[in-house]
Write a structure and sequence with these properties.
This protein is α/β, with parallel strands linked by helices. About 25% of the residues lie in helices and about 20% in strands. The chain contains 12 helices and 15 strands. The chain starts with 10 loop residues before the first strand and ends with a strand.
Length: about 375
């Protein structure tokens, strides 16, 4: 990292400059590394959005950390002028969890892809979410393995023909939003790489959330899965394909808001024509509900029938987190721990002597 200085007085040619609040800019978060994604990759748009958004958080680069795993998204940490960790495959949430527990003064971010986070890294992701570790997790979902040249990923649709599934994928895909909600995540959102207004809004809300926050970002891979989200981004289809979730607002979409989400008599949700059911029948979105069942039901819209897809905040329900208590406990233990304590731990009574017969005796 090449950090951009600190708050307070600085010296230029031996002359002290006036002390004052530090004004951060996008340039403060841009590294001098050459970005090396494929031309047209959605990662460029996400990188620009994050770099442009971070100055308003007010946390300087030297107190910000980006932890990434393996995959195209793994290069993200190289392009941020912050501290960064390029971890091994799937382990970014575990590394970031330890860092957040030991250094609560830092702003810790995780950048991962659908293969990295949901395949080998699945357990690390769900446990970071259930523990409500104060991480901001950006899950880039392009529904393909891009770095390894186009194999099926955990989010690839059933029947997807790829280099590893020449007869079509036989598996049902993961729904990252539903998975996160099932793990007990207190903040779950979905957005799109090229939406330069919606993406920063989701980042803003995630930073304001005190616990773990996961944002699934639909991200186009122009080489191995080009156009996977065209229905949600092209002018002639997006109105009828995008369901914008806003807390406290009736859920309606389409040209002139002609479609809406309603709850059926059996409790399930479905898409209906507003003219047929009336505005009063529309479901009002409540992202702040403690019970995640409504958010989970909304996550299934579009998944089952391939139709309209919700984006926005599905759930934003902070809970009393144990993260602060664990951090305080860790700090107290570190402050009082001595070399004698370490020796006692290593050579104490909870060790075993194993004889030639393989039998052990605790001592």
């Amino acid at each position: 990292m090449s950090a951009s200085g600190t708050n307070g007085a600085a010296k230029t040619n031996g002359t002290a400059e006036p002390s004052g609040p530090r004004v951060l800019t996008k340039a403060d978060f841009q590294s001098d590394a050459e970005t090396r994604w494929c031309p047209g990759c959605g990662d460029y748009a996400v990188l620009a959005a994050v770099q442009g958004f971070l100055p308003e958080v007010g946390v300087p680069p030297e107190r910000t950390v980006f932890v990434s795993g393996i995959g195209c998204a793994g290069r993200f940490s190289y392009y941020m002028n912050t501290y960064g960790v390029h971890g091994i495959h799937g382990r970014a949430p575990a590394l970031a969890s330890g860092l957040a527990a030991a250094r609560p003064d830092l702003s810790v971010w995780v950048v991962s892809g659908d293969g990295d986070a949901l395949s080998i890294g699945g357990n690390h992701l769900i446990h970071a979410l259930r523990r409500d570790v104060p991480l901001k997790i950006l899950l880039f979902n392009n529904r393909i393995y891009g770095l390894t040249k186009g194999q099926v990923s955990p989010t690839s649709e059933r029947g997807k023909v790829t280099k590893s599934t020449p007869f079509g994928s036989p598996d049902e895909p993961f729904n990252p939003v539903a998975l996160a909600l099932g793990a007990g995540a207190t903040f779950v959102a979905r957005t799109i790489d090229r939406d330069k207004h919606h993406l920063p809004a989701m980042l803003r809300a995630a930073v304001a959330h005190p616990g773990a926050a996961l944002i699934e970002i639909y991200q186009n891979c122009p080489v191995y899965n080009d156009g996977a989200f065209d229905a949600l981004t092209e002018k002639d289809t997006r109105d009828d394909a995008l369901v914008m979730l806003e807390h406290g607002q009736p859920i309606r979409f389409g040209a002139d808001g002609k479609h809406g989400i309603v709850r059926r008599a059996d409790g399930d949700l479905e898409v209906a024509e507003v003219a047929d059911v009336g505005e009063n029948a529309l479901l009002v979105h409540d992202a702040h509900r403690t019970d995640p069942s409504l958010a989970f039901a909304l996550s299934q819209i579009g998944e089952l029938d391939g139709g309209a897809t919700p984006i926005g905040i599905f759930r934003q329900s902070p809970r009393a987190s144990d993260a602060a208590a664990r951090t305080a406990e860790l700090s107290a233990a570190r402050a009082s721990f001595t070399a004698a304590d370490l020796a006692k731990l290593l050579h104490g009574s909870n060790t075993w002597s194993v004889g030639a017969s393989g039998a052990g005796a605790e001592r």
